[in-house]
Amino acid sequence: MAYMSTWRSPVLLIQGDDDRNVPFSQTVSLSRELDKHGIKYEELVFPDEIHGFLLHRSWLAAYTAEADFFHRYLEENQPSTEQKKR
């Protein structure tokens, strides 16, 4: 939050709403600040999940969301094959 004014990268927020290590309210506050600063972000919230996800399906969904997020945001910033040849 301290560096929000200089933040430019898109953000993926993933959290269980029963997280006892990081209060869910912090994720809500962070997403509001990201909105205020016009920073792209995506959220994935797992109902009744804790900090270190208990359910296998939550892990799979988180990993899938991460891979998709990185693919979209890192791939779009790579030069095309034509640009690489020049």
How are the SSEs ordered, and which strands pair?
Blueprint: E1 11-16, H1 24-36, E2 41-46, H2 56-75, H3 81-85
Parallel strand pairs: 1-2
What does this molecule look like?
The chain is of the alpha+beta class and 86 residues long. The protein has one domain (4-85). It contains 3 helices and 2 strands, in the order βαβαα. Strands 1-2 form a two-stranded parallel sheet. The protein is flat and about 40 Å long.
Radius of gyration, in Å, reads: 16 Å
Helix tally?
A: 3
Please indicate the count of domains: 1
Strand content is: 5-15%
Tell me about the largest β-sheet: 2 strands, parallel
Which tags fit this structure?
two-stranded parallel sheet, 44% helix, 3 helices, 14% strand, alpha+beta, 86 residues
Give a brief outline of the structure.
The chain has 86 residues and is of the alpha+beta class. The protein has helices at residues 24-36, 56-75, 81-85, and strands at 11-16, 41-46. It has one domain.
